Amino acid sequence: MKEVDAIKDHDTIKLISYLLERQCGEQMRDVWEIGLNLALRISDLLAIRFSDIEGDTLRIQECKTGKQARIVLNAKTRERIAAIRAAHPLHVYLFQSYRSQGAANRPPRPLTRRAVTKAFMLVGEELKLDLGTHSMRKTRGYWLYQQCKDLGRVMRMLRHQSEAVTLRYIGISQQQVDQDFLQLEI
């Protein structure tokens, strides 16, 4: 699997949203925008059921680690979820598959990781970016780090155990850390 990057430019983040909607539909745009705000692995993001959301809080058990995650939803995320729920009141999953053949004749299922990967790769190719399903999580971590410069806080959000993993994950090199030390004089 090819390594993907955090998106380090706000205009590019917005352009990805626009292109996903234009080329793949509103649902893929919602996956991108909600995924950016939740910083979950794609398996956890696609597995979200409306029953996992209580008011402004999402509670899930992470597939990979088995850890419980409690995430307070920001206003943008709550608005997108409310719009999805209003458009699809009978759906079980936040990102439920409903357009494929036979979807009406089988139990509810979420979108597949494969479908999301395909959509993201399509947009990534157009923008000449290594865009993948993990780009959402990495982007959220990168922007939180840029805002607070608190690696421990980013580690907690991503539920990582190692600073080295988090630094590599969000695309912060030792050279950038060194530059931070040079620029900040007390």
UniProtKB/TrEMBL annotation:
InterPro entries reported for this sequence: DNA_brk_join_enz, Integrase-like_cat_sf, Integrase_catalytic, Tyrosine_recombinase_XerCD
Transmembrane segments: none
Record domain Tyr recombinase: where: 2-182
One matching Pfam family: Phage_integrase
Alphabetical list of PROSITE patterns matching this protein: TYR_RECOMBINASE
Keywords assigned: DNA integration, DNA recombination
The UniProt record lists the keyword Transcription: no
Ubl conjugation keyword on record: no
PANTHER family the UniProt entry points to: INTEGRASE_RECOMBINASE YOEC-RELATED (PTHR30349:SF82), PHAGE INTEGRASE-RELATED (PTHR30349)
Name of this protein: Tyrosine-type recombinase/integrase
Source organism per UniProt: Shewanella litorisediminis
Lineage per the UniProt record: Bacteria, Pseudomonadati, Pseudomonadota, Gammaproteobacteria, Alteromonadales
